[in-house]
Design goal:
The chain is mostly beta strands. It is built from no helices and nine strands. The protein has a single domain, classed as Jelly Rolls (Sandwich), CATH 2.60.120. It is globular, with a radius of gyration of 13 Å.
Length: about 110
């Protein structure tokens, strides 16, 4: 077992993200986990991630606030306690279209 305290977690710059604080809670470097990583993202109003297709599976779970996740054909407005699964290589963009911050737990499989 390995315990991680939020006070020990370091923020990092996620490519293609803006007006967001991203922190990795679990993964190869943090706990030695090799199958997936877990992150915590705090999106400011207007913040998000550009359209992209990261190769791994993704699970987004909204802890607070609201985010909109889109691709070329779908739009999903996620609110507190909503979860969205995105298949490996699935395209997505993320936006916080509200005037309040939003927090989201991210689970991402290593390829």
């Amino acid at each position: 077992m390995k315990r991680i305290s939020l006070s020990d977690v370091k923020a990092y710059d996620a490519p293609g993200h803006f007006l967001v604080s991203t922190m990795r809670l679990h993964g190869k470097d943090e706990t030695g986990g090799s199958k997936f990583w877990v992150g915590l993202s705090h999106f400011l109003p207007g913040g998000g991630a550009d359209l992209g297709s990261p190769p791994g599976e993704k699970v987004y779970y909204v802890l607070e606030g609201e985010v909109t996740v889109t691709n070329k054909t779908e739009e999903h407005v996620l609110r507190k306690n909503d979860l969205l699964y995105i298949e490996p290589g699935g395209e997505r963009a993320i936006r916080n279209n509200t005037n309040l911050p939003a927090s989201m737990l991210v689970v991402y499989s290593y390829e």
